[in-house]
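Hi, here's the filled form for the chain we discussed.

Project: internal
Contact: R.S.
Residues: 228
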Amino acid sequence: MVFSTPSPLSQAQRPAIVPSPDSAPDIMLSRGRTHEACGPARHSFAMWLAQAVQRGGPHQAGIGQQPPPLGHGPVLWIGLRAPTLALNASGMAPWVQPGAFVFVQAEKPDLALWAMEEGLRSGAVPLVVADLPSPPGLTPVRRLHLAAEAAGTAPLGLLLCPDIGGAAGIETRWHMAPAHEGSTAPRWRLERLRARALPPKAWVMQGMGAPAQLQPVPDHTAIGARPT
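And the returned structure, exactly as it came back:
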């Protein structure tokens, strides 16, 4: 049976990917939608999400709902044709299986967004990532949402944008930055900048395994609201 969404659902009701078992309900990314990750460690956020997809979960659905199975294909990673933006398999290996990725190089951002839209609509892959030089506007983001919703497997789209992002109409926006100083293990600061039903919040995330250790940051001030 093809999964459908006859009316808009809240973030808690949508089938979602939960990157770590103890991160729900704070860190959940709704399937069948497109999200945004920004900041200097946005690629690490994408690896964390891909890790959950490759390990088959954890996933979560709304009460009384059975989520559709994710596509069993590889992670589709779309970037621009620039050697400096290529991922290094050795750097990926602690997080994911690099061989379970398909890499696409586009000549310009518009073609990268087109490839992402087609990848989501196919339903053949569980996760489509597009690494962009700047945030896209509302119209292409809407097209990505529609493509993901149209696929019977409810794939997840993730846009990677520099600085603090700003893609219009996105489902959620996450900012990730390194915070390794004073730690013997890899550590990052993860911030939820935007979600439809949840306020901004921040965590310190340590470790690359599953589950990663997450500690809330008290007295959090959203990155976009800090004095400069």
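Let me know if anything looks off before we file it.
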